[in-house]
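Q: Got a minute? One more chain.
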Amino acid sequence: MSENFLDKRSILVNQIQEYLKKGKIIDFEKLIPYIKERSSKSSININENGIRYILKSLFKNNYIVQGSKFTRDCVLNNSNRKKLYITIIQNPGLYFTRLVKMLNLSNHVVAWHINTLYKFGFIKKEIIDNHEVYFDSKFESIYIKAYYLLQKPKSKEIIECLINEHNLGITKTRISTITNTHYNIVSKYIENLEDISIIERKKESDKTLYFLNKDQYNRYKITKI
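A: Always. Here it is, folded:
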């Protein structure tokens, strides 16, 4: 970007801030005449096409959002919204009901803040197993399913069983007994964890044993966004 463009964008950002301080909301078409009028009274040399171009770039980069009363700079000024965002960063793959429970906030409040974080590009949403789950916007897509599965309490129980076996392996039936979980449910979880290479199986005589792939598991544990 040229220095001239950045200077003009900086001036327009200040004008948008002034616009919002008047209690107005972001509206692309209403912003244009306001900025044209303000610019005509300043030293900035910019026409309507230039204004439209810069505004579109600000929308594209999620600095401003249609219908909002604030800019991206102010999104995390709300303490509950900031807490929600930090929780998602620290616990990638959480779904709505777990967020509500963890934060002890109402469904309405959590939904409102999730929508705001999403609109301004702080988080991304994915649908997995009919759940809408949340990740930081910078989170790598290849890890999304894995982190969703690893956040589930039942996955953690099964992995704990495998860890406690000290590389000796364990059967589905034994996992079902230890976790007090129906055999078919255990089978589904194991299948999903095998898909992301967290669990490996080995056939021994008349039984199948399951093992934790520690290298893969540790890789997910230490992966940073």
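A: The domain at 152-222 is CATH 1.10.10.10 (Arc Repressor Mutant, subunit A).
Q: Perfect, thanks.
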